[in-house]
Each structure stands twice: as C-alpha cells, then as structure tokens.
C-alpha cells in the first residue's frame, strides 16, 4: 500500500529542509520541491498527492500561480488538499485563496 504523499513547494533550501524535517515520518511520502515545475511533475506522477503545501513567496513564480493552475486543472490537483504558508497573508489574499479551495 502506497503512503499518502505530501508535496512541499519552497524555494529557500533552509525552509524547505525545516518543513521537510517537521513533516518527516514513516507514515507519509514526502516530496520536497524547489519550484512550481518540480511540483507539477510530482503532481503528475503516481501515487497521487493528498496534500500540496506551498509557500506563496517563491522567487521565480508566486505559489499563487501553482494554486490557480490547480484550480483550473482538476486532473492535476485530483483529490489533493492545498495549504499555504507565507510571511504576509492579508484578508483579501485569504479570501482569494478560499475561493480557490485553499
């Protein structure tokens, strides 16, 4: 039986390592991605992800770009839940994220 997969998208290596260490365990398959392109590849592979956890403040692209792509392409998102972490989420951004199913 495949472990539930969690995809973490964070471009800062130190933060990616910290989040990975915090989530590491024998009961999940953790996939650490440094950008949206890696996350998309991970989402397209099997087994499917149960959670996508992304930073909103990525250097090349915003994590919001990934979230909007997942909202536009249900085949990519499948049944994965999406959560974000960020240093600055205001009420308007929180509402927009909620509308996207985050």
Brief overview, please?
With 102 residues, the protein is an alpha/beta fold.
Observed structural traits:
102 residues, alpha/beta, Rossmann fold, 5 helices
- Number of beta-strand segments: 4
The averaged pLDDT comes out at 93
What coarse outline follows from CA principal-axis ratios? globular
> Per DSSP, what share of the residues sits in E-state strands of 2 or more residues?
15-25%
Provide the succession of SSEs.
EHEHEHHEH
Topology:
Layout: E1 5-9, H1 13-23, E2 29-33, H2 36-44, E3 49-55, H3 63-72, H4 74-77, E4 81-85, H5 91-99
What does this structure look like?
- By secondary structure, this protein is of the alpha/beta class.
- It has a single domain (5-99), classed as 3-Layer(aba) Sandwich (Rossmann fold).
- Helices cover 42% and strands 22% of the residues.
- It has five helices and four strands, in the order βαβαβααβα.
- The chain has helices at 13-23, 36-44, 63-72, 74-77, 91-99; strands spanning 5-9, 29-33, 49-55, 81-85.
- The protein has a four-stranded parallel β-sheet with strand order 2-1-3-4, with helices on both faces.
- It is globular.
């Amino acid at each position: 039986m495949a472990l539930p997969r969690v995809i973490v998208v964070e471009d800062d290596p130190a933060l990616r390592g910290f989040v990975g260490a915090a989530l590491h365990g024998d009961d999940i398959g953790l996939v650490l991605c440094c950008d949206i392109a890696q996350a998309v590849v991970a989402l397209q592979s099997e087994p499917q992800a149960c959670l996508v956890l992304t930073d909103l403040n990525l250097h090349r692209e915003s994590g919001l770009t990934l979230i909007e792509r997942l909202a536009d392409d249900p085949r990519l998102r499948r049944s994965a839940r999406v959560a974000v972490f960020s240093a600055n989420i205001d009420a308007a951004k929180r509402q927009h994220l909620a509308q996207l199913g985050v």
